[in-house]
Structures are given as C-alpha cells and as structure tokens.
Sequence to fold (146 residues):
Amino acid sequence: MGGTGHADYIINSYNTGNILQKNGSLPRRSACGIMHYTISSTKIINVYNIGEIVANSRQGIAYSKDGFTETYPTAYYKNDDGIKGGNFEDVEIGTGMLLANMKTNAFVSTLNSNLNNIKLEEIDAILKDYNLKSWKLGDNGYPILE
Fold:
C-alpha cells in the first residue's frame, strides 16, 4: 500500500495481492511498510490487507523500528495463520481478523462506520477537498470501494 519513510497517509484502501521480499531488501515485509519513531505524522486509517506476506519475517500491517509504538485500530489484516500486526509482542499495531469475517456485510458496515471518524482536513490541510468513497461487498466477497 505504501512505504512510510516520510509523512505518509494510507487512508480508505485495501490490498489483496501478495507482498514479496525483493533481493537485497529488508528481511521484513508488511502491508503498510516500515514505521520509525521519527514519523509521528504517519496515518493508516480504514484499510485492510488480505494478501499473503511472503518474507522471512512477516507483519500484518507494519514493521516497527526505533521504538515506534503507534497503533492503527482501523487497519485490519488477515491473521488466520497467527500473523501479528507488528513485530513487537506487546504492541498490536492493527486489528487481526479471520478471513471469513472479512467477507461479511458486518465488516463492510465497520469500514463504512469508520468513515464518520475520518476528518481529512485535520490530518492535513491538503486533503480537505477530497471525498472518501464508501464500501460495498465485491463480486469476490471482499469489501471494495464504490
């Protein structure tokens, strides 16, 4: 979905594809990149990942380094295989869900309900004129943006 080496925003999006480790890259992969304690303005809001994370070390939402302890409760990831949201045992970065529960109208309702709490102009003034799309179940049974 993105890398978080700067003040990045990953808002109202999803990933369904595999996340692969490239030769020579860091041995950790996640849906939203690597978080650093120096990146206090990173926002990961209302996203989900159902893609397989293929690497030596796997995190569902983010790999944290340098003492980063932010959490993203509306960043959902598939944890059927026991994958954690992040690499610290005591910090649950995102919200793990069973894949079957992500293919429900209840999950679509949760994603749409989260939209009410996203104030783009408070995240960054440049986002004030953007409109967020709502969610619906797609033909494959997973939520997609309308």
